[in-house]
């Protein structure tokens, strides 16, 4: 059996790489079936954050048990895939809890580099063998007038094509293995993103409450589109409406106050324990409807609920004015 | 031949140099000191949901504290650094009484009983609310692996600071002043 021609080395190399990659794909787990299997499968992919090289499936540390309980909760709700659950844990503890490196970002180099090195090393070995064969071919020693029988080196264009093919194979193979074997965490980029949520919109809206009321109202509106009963969005959109309408014409002001009154009462109906809505309704009733008695009721209830500092600051001076108005009236 | 060898040597040397530079750059980026103020994927993001009860059975919802600066201290009554930092937390809580825009302090009980927590506070002082976390959901939501840890949430409900390990009065005061734009 003769050795393969050097011309066939790239073909053989490509075939060997393809077989290796197919092997990797073939041995991939098809996934767990029951909830308990899902919990165990996910737990095996997450490192215990307080242990050395131990998964949370094996660890009995407090943090590991808490994470396992969280996984069980998320599996039970059935709203997230395995990858999404692992993505959630990574978004809280960082990438160090991933036992299986990610298939994206810098982590992907863990998968790509070995394949790339393997392919490049095989190509280099093939090139070395080809050169060795060329130089090892016999030379007609008895007849110095006869030239060496060694074949000439391949043309530059062909060598270049082989080099490009090798690099492409190394990169493509590495990427393929990374995509098949690495953690694929949804909604995350190489810089680690968390998808926009209602909480994000609410935080953004809050930060713009006074600096850019229009943008803030728009953001609260977006929250209410997906969650019409969101108490915070109802309350603060109404409050910004009140503040923005103060300088408007009487007609606009009345319309705005009526709308705000309705939204604040709706928020209180949805969550009677939300102090902010009660405080703002108290302000609205006293300042713009002139109803000190109704305002006092709302302000007293708000105060009894320990409102946050900003809300407390808004109504602090007002309560004295309301008391005074009631004494006069 | 000598020229080829020297070119190869130069190429290998350059490759080794590049790898070394990358390694040094990575090491330089890594946390090298014992600075307790640490990174977290949650910094700059809305705080996780914290809906629970205090050990006195009062309801607590972190989302309802928006409008206040909030400090959450994760602790356990048997942890030594928790005991060591407690005096600073008491001093911090006292410094907020009567302040114009007081910071609210809450303890999150990690893997501990109500009775042990009560005994801890009876012995060392402090009257701020202690939040239950019986199944570890709050601990996991914040990515807390070891206690003590202290987090600061701003009035917009955004996580702004994480202190891993023992916190001091100086750290709390100076870091919150910076976050508030006062320093």
Which shape of chain B, going by the Cα principal axes?
A: elongated
Please state the structural category of chain A: mainly alpha
Please give the domain count of chain B. Answer: 2
In the CATH hierarchy, what is the superfamily of the largest domain in chain B?
Glutaredoxin
Determine and state the CATH class of the domain at 198-328 in chain A.
Answer: Mainly Alpha
Query: Helix tally of chain B?
Result: 5
Q: How would you spell out the order of helices and strands of chain A? A: HHHHHHHHHHHHH
Give me the secondary-structure category of chain B.
alpha/beta
Rg value of chain A: 35 Å
Low-pLDDT sequence parts of chain A: 188-195
CATH topology of the domain at 198-328 in chain A: Serine Threonine Protein Phosphatase 5, Tetratricopeptide repeat
3D shape of chain A = elongated
Low-confidence stretches of chain B: none
**What count of helical segments of chain A does DSSP give?**
13
CATH superfamily of the domain at 198-328 in chain A: Tetratricopeptide repeat domain
* Largest sheet composition of chain A: none
- In CATH's first tier, which class of the largest domain in chain B applies? Alpha Beta
CATH architecture level-2 label of the largest domain in chain B = 3-Layer(aba) Sandwich
Strand order of the largest sheet of chain B: 5-4-3-6-7
Which chains make the largest contact? A-B, 36 and 37 residues
